[in-house]
Amino acid sequence: MVDGPGPGETRFWRTAVVIATGIFVTGLGWPGLIGRLPFGLFLKNQLHMPPEKVAAFWAVATIAWYGKPLVGLLCDAWPLSGTRRRGYLLLGTVAAACAWLAFAVLPARYGVLLANMTALNLGLVVVSAAVGGMQVEEGQRLGATGRLSALRMGLEGVMSVVAGPLGGVLAMLSFGVTALSGAATVALLLPVTLLFHHEPRRAVEDRTVWARAIIDLKRIVRSRPMWTASLLLFFLYLTPGLQTPLLYYQQDVLKLDARTMGLLQFAGGGGAVAGAALYAWLCRRLPLRWTLPAGITLCAAAALLYLEYRSASAALLIETAVGLTGSLGALPVYDLAARATPEGSESFGFGLMISIRNVALFAISDPLGSLLYGRYHLGLGKLALVNAGTTLAVLLLLPLIPATLLAPRERTGA
């Protein structure tokens, strides 16, 4: 007789379904992914904005993601309908879906687009904070931080696989179609939460979360695991970004249409999926002290591939390779961040480190890379060299990480 899954395994997989769906809808439903080409090309071609102003638009529109730790505190401290996670999942999903639908009726003007996109991101942040708390809780409870981090990165790759071709098609249609597609994507989380996340309605207000947050902040300043993980995330994503410059380069220099640009995003997503699957296997066999420096080195080497970004066929191969190495470079850092997060304030601790990454990526990296490309006319090749050099410099921070965090491998049991 073969025993069925135990209560712990059943709970893990039910929670994993909710986590996976939450990651998927906040990723694919994020306007910077499914709407990257529709909005980006509209800002470029219709509003005639230079690269640095397009990057600034996204930097402001994503401002809610910089305050994700505060939203995480709300999830930890104040239950909705007696639940710590379920209520926020439902609230954020409804708010984000409504904001997406608003794009179908609002006038396509800069200020209006910016305001509504900021509201949309706020709804997605509420969902993401609740999902992040669930991810850390389950990862620490079962010693599965690496596998859940790989799940996140793998889903991000799947999102790019879907969003690439879809975004290319949507870029040729009206904003109304993009709005309906975004709203439908986000709304997927509603039935999944209702069916799989049966959280008991007995959570009570916990004002001590705020006191713990202050204690956690003080502990972060004194804690090598926390501030070294935060520094790694910050500097890994601080490098002058290629996101917006690449959009301009693909259309203006390579003369690619939106559909082809979407296929390139598809290729990058496929590479990311492969990288996540590979890391899920590696994290059970190799300690972080090996996978962390190897991943960062691979990311730096991959940036050099952009020196040969001269045709659609070359771009297809390069985007696939960069997606693969990007997963292998970022996943060990996410694994480290989950291991370093203090117990008791999971949404806050993990959200704080991810918000540091968001500030580096959206508020500094992409605007800086776009400024160098657009205003100072630094070509894509030279920008890639700068990106590779600054990524490689992150290796200098590795000696600061406590050996106890780097030594263990992922546990093989679920």
Task: Describe what you observe in this structure.
- The protein has one domain: MFS general substrate transporter like domains (Growth Hormone, Chain: A, Up-down Bundle).
- It is mostly helical.
- It starts with 6 loop residues before the first helix and ends in an 8-residue tail after the last helix.
- It is 75% helix and 0% strand.
In short:
This protein is mainly α and 414 residues long. 75% of the residues lie in helices and 0% in strands. The chain has one domain (11-406): Growth Hormone, Chain: A (Up-down Bundle), CATH 1.20.1250.20.
Write the layout of secondary structure elements.
Elements: H1 7-28, H2 36-46, H3 51-61, H4 63-66, H5 68-77, H6 86-102, H7 110-142, H8 145-170, H9 175-187, H10 189-196, H11 208-222, H12 224-236, H13 243-252, H14 258-282, H15 288-303, H16 312-340, H17 346-374, H18 380-392, H19 403-406
Which terms summarize this structure?
75% helix; globular; mainly alpha; Growth Hormone, Chain: A
